[in-house]
Amino acid sequence: MADDIVIQGDGLRKQFTETVIAVEDAKFTIPRGSFISLVGPSGCGKSTLLRLISGLIEKTDGDLLVRNSEVVGPRSDIGMMFQKAVLLDWRTAIENVLLPDEIRGTVSPEAKKKAWDHLHLVGLQDFEFSFPRQLSGGMQQRVALARLLQTGADIMLLDEPFGALDEFTRERLNVELLKIVDDPNITTVFVTHNISEAIFLGDQVFVMTPRPGRIAAQIEIDLPKPRTIDLETTPEFQAYVQQVRDVLASHLEDQPL
Amino acid sequence: MSDIGSDGVLAGVKELSPAKKLFMHLSVFIILFGGWELGSRLGHVNELIMPAPTSIAYRLYEMFFVTGSIYWHYIITMYEAVMGFIIGVSIGMGLAISAAISPVFRRYWAPYAVVFNVTPGIAVTPFIIAWFGFGYSSKIALAALVCFFPPFINTLTGLLHIDKDATELFRSLGATKRQYFIKCQIPTATPIIIAGLKLAMTGALIGTVVAQFFSASEGVGILMQRFAFRLNMDGSFAALIVMSLMGLSLFTLMEYMDYKVIYWRRHSRMEEVSAKRKRKWTMAE
Questions:
Q1: Which of A238, B228, B231, B236 is surrounded by the fewest CB atoms within 10 Å?
Q2: Which CATH fold topology does B62-265 show?
Q3: What string of pLDDT tens digits covers the 257 residues of chain A?
Q4: If contacts are CB pairs under 8 Å, which of residues 28-67 in chain A contact chain B?
């Protein structure tokens, strides 16, 4: 395995029950510093694949290596973000961001300074001491992002993080997210069922198809960076959208809805 | 700004000015008690069955300010109810925490708690008297018995119904079971635990009074019964009102605790606490 490969799967398989195979024969490599979008319809196993990488669930079969070691459970170099912000209602924004340090026993003036800076980085100056219920959905996700940054993890797994937000907020947050993770050391895996979003964000798009969940295609997205929203109207972008649609269509046509 | 959910049962009632609200309250009060008083005075209501509000009020005045006879009974009853509450809640919450932590305990022991609950607690009063005697301890024991279940079931439910994502978050951060319990489960369960404590508070008072009915030499329950046996209905009613006052004061105490502890459900409280946390943070720097 080359040094610049961070995550590697081969023949990876996750079976929940006799008939439910969430992930089947997944083979992929994820290079350091890249942004991978995992796109597919609901129930195609994309979230399961993400949870396998995170160590939250155990694989049934195959190989799954993160930095050349077998994934056996959650690890500190991997951080997660969910569709819901999952903030603790009784803690202020800054206290929520400090949670990873509290759990690891690393609370210090430096850690607090970092939490402060992370909140400002995600655009929440003046909201440090607000409680989650005082914040909008978009702001709550910003806090969740700051908390993810606070973990110091350089592998970020995001499970439809902005999926519950309105279109405008989501676009803005996507652009900001790209800026934040644009670091040669940060590897990102982003799950979504929105094709445009997947292409807009990704260096590579893994297209997944259901029953059983397979990675049907891995498409390199060769679009200029930094990316801006107007990119979506270009013919190149639309060509990628068509390409993903074709992959999904060819796998879905013989399946019931 | 109004508090979240505070309009609950009052939703749909038109908001009036304070003066008008007072007027409405007074009108209802006067119609209710004036009608009752009038009924008694005109001889439509038998004083032996239903004494007039003014005679009950006079008895209350006498008990509190002339003879002062009520205070000792009041203190004893409160003492028994509160002790029973503390013991019942400790046992209920202790069992619930054990059941939440250990699936084996939950599977094989918790069912007994349910059987225990469906058995009317009041029905075991004779056993309680037989085991604990005629003194304070039998009242405390019955109060504890009657009030133990709501904190048990609410604590257990609260601790086990944690958002799946929150559990995954804590796991992905590498939290220990202990950290998860303290930083996630307990705070998440607090609102429902306090709801259980409110029920328990009322239960404890019921248990105490019922045990006093059976056998006691002191307490508002036995006082009420003595009045009733002597057909002293206004005294009996006065004792009942004293019980309501006790219930009300204990319940208000719980409401206050709710208000203080669960700040994250009320906008005004969040603003207060937010400012407090900010001061604390700036001072630490």
A1: B231
A2: MetI-like fold (1.10.3720)
A3: 455 899 999 989 898 888 888 888 889 999 999 999 999 988 888 999 999 999 999 999 999 999 989 999 999 999 999 989 999 999 999 999 999 999 999 999 999 999 999 999 999 999 999 999 999 999 999 999 999 999 999 999 999 999 888 888 898 899 999 998 988 899 999 999 999 999 999 999 999 988 888 898 899 999 988 888 888 889 999 999 999 999 988 887 666 65
A4: 51, 54-56
A187 sits in which H/E element: strand A187-192
φ, ψ at B198 (rounded to 5°): -65, -45
The neighbour count for residue A74, using CB atoms within 10 Å, is: 18
Strands A35-39 and A204-209: parallel
Tokens describing residue A226: 């930094």
The SS3 of residue A131 is coil
* H helix and E strand count, chain B: 15, 0
- Most distant CA pair in chain B, distance: 77
Calpha distance A214→B16 (Å, rounded):
63
What's the half-sphere exposure (Cβ side, CA atoms, 13 Å) at B2?
A: 8
**Per-residue model confidence (pLDDT) at position B3:** 47
List residues of chain B with CB under 8 Å from any CB of chain A: 4, 163, 165-166, 168-175, 179, 183-184, 187, 263-265, 267, 270, 273-275, 277-278, 281, 285
Domain boundaries, chain B: 62-265
Give the ipTM of the model, two decimals please.
0.90
Q: Which long-range contacts (CB under 8 A, 24 or more apart) does B91-94 make?
A: B91/B144, B91/B148, B91/B152, B92/B147, B92/B148, B92/B149, B92/B150, B92/B151, B92/B152, B92/B155, B92/B196, B92/B200, B93/B151, B93/B152, B93/B155, B93/B193
pLDDT at site B9: 64
Of A188, A145, A204, give the one whose Cα is nearest residue A169.
A145
β-strand A69-70 against A61-66: which pairing, if any? antiparallel
Phi, psi at A87, each rounded to 5°: -95, 155
Using a CB-CB cut-off of 8 Å, the residues of chain A touching B265 are 89, 133
For the segment A142-158, what is each residue's pLDDT rounded down to a tens digit? 999 999 999 999 999 99
Q: Rounded to whole angstroms, how far apart are CA atoms A111 and A97?
A: 10
Query: What is the distance in angstroms between the Cα of A74 and the nearest Cα belonging to chain B?
Result: 5
The reply to whether residue B169 touches residue A86, judged by beta carbons under 8 angstroms, is yes
